[in-house]
Amino acid sequence: MNWNQKGFTLIESLLVLSIFMIISSVTVFTLKPQHTFMEKDSFFTQLKADLYYAQQYAISHQHEVLVQFVPTEYRYYMIYRAEERTIIERDYSHNVNFTEGTMPLSFKFLPDGNINKFGSLILYYRNKIYRLTFLIGEGRFYVSEQ
Description:
It is a single chain. This protein is of the alpha+beta class. The protein has one domain (10-145): minor pseudopilin epsh fold (3-Layer(bab) Sandwich), CATH 3.55.40. The protein contains 1 helix and 8 strands.
């Protein structure tokens, strides 16, 4: 029996393994910026969906829904005021920081879907600044990069 014809040598195996490690490490480093973009995009998509849900909940139940951001806990709440019941409680990334702009970090959607205060909240995501602006009447809002 000749052992040299039955498989790969140790050097050949190590060479293939090292090439594989180099290729996979290059792939991991190129995917990191894409992860950052996806995290920001999914956060804003979820936030908008939650705000629309709270507004529709207020309209359908004909009662106020309180929206409250708690930046120290990296969390926001949406509370049905009639029963003091939390309808949404969402944690968000520690890369996101909310601060008051021209409106406080808590406001209400009224039974007609309007908002009780209007103005802007400031969001810091990594090294960029975003403004979450609520318009007067109809409870419309949008996010813009500063």
